[in-house]
Design a protein that fits this description.
Elements: H1 2-9, E1 14-19, E2 25-29, H2 40-43, H3 48-51, H4 54-68, E3 73-79, E4 82-92, E5 98-107, H5 109-131, E6 137-139, E7 145-148, H6 150-156, H7 160-163, H8 168-171, H9 179-190
Antiparallel strand pairs: 1-2, 1-5, 3-4, 4-5, 6-7
Length: 203
């Protein structure tokens, strides 16, 4: 029992608790309880409606009832100034009967902000990549085009998504005999950069 209590009390960056079939908390704790209006120990024996405003009860109580029926749900909710990922899941005994519902909530505010920043940076880099007037592309070890910019797509007269994942020789059969293709192959083999100056003309 002490191990379980210690585990719940030290649950990182959030809270975890058990709710019985009367929708009363049997145990509640975690490092995130500092953001709650009550301490975890004060919640034992109380219902969600005793501690949370009506809009929160209306949103979350159906998930607790669903967990007590054997369902698992994950939702991201706003609370105070942050965003929290809330898991509600059933806890069963050895016979497979649901004896309580577990609720776990973790603060994901920084994670969501980091994902948003990554997405914004990705969009910015994509815009920059496609605005390069020269033809730019990336080949994998199979000499397939994994990334192409808009200038190359315009040169082929095809949308970028129709060019991606095609082998270079499928689009330009003659290039296999060129100095460019040979240097692409060598750079992929020894991972050394090369600069090649020449001309290439399609038939």
């Amino acid at each position: 029992q002490q191990w379980y209590e210690a585990l719940i009390r030290n649950f990182p960056n959030g809270i975890v608790g058990l709710v019985n079939h009367d929708l009363r908390f049997e145990i509640m704790g975690g490092t995130g309880e500092i953001n709650l209006p009550y301490r975890g120990d004060d919640l034992v024996g109380r219902k969600l409606s005793d501690i949370m405003p009506p809009e929160v009860v209306k949103r979350d109580e159906p998930y607790l009832r669903a967990a007590l029926k054997g369902e698992t749900h994950v939702q991201t909710v706003d609370f105070q100034d942050g965003k929290y990922q809330v898991y509600t899941l059933p806890i069963t005994n050895d016979n497979g009967h649901v004896i309580s519902a577990m609720v776990m909530s973790q603060d994901v505010t920084e994670l969501i902000q980091a994902q948003k920043t990554i997405l914004e940076n990705q969009e910015r880099y994509q815009m920059l990549f496609h605005s390069i007037p020269d033809m730019v592309f990336i080949l994998n070890a199979e000499m397939e085009l994994t990334l192409v910019n808009q200038a190359l797509a315009d040169w082929f007269g095809m949308p970028t998504h129709e060019i991606r994942d095609k082998k270079l020789v499928e689009l330009l059969p003659e290039i296999e005999e060129s100095i460019f293709y040979e240097n692409y192959r060598l750079s992929l083999e020894d991972e050394h950069p090369r600069v090649v100056v020449g001309q290439y003309a399609t038939s």
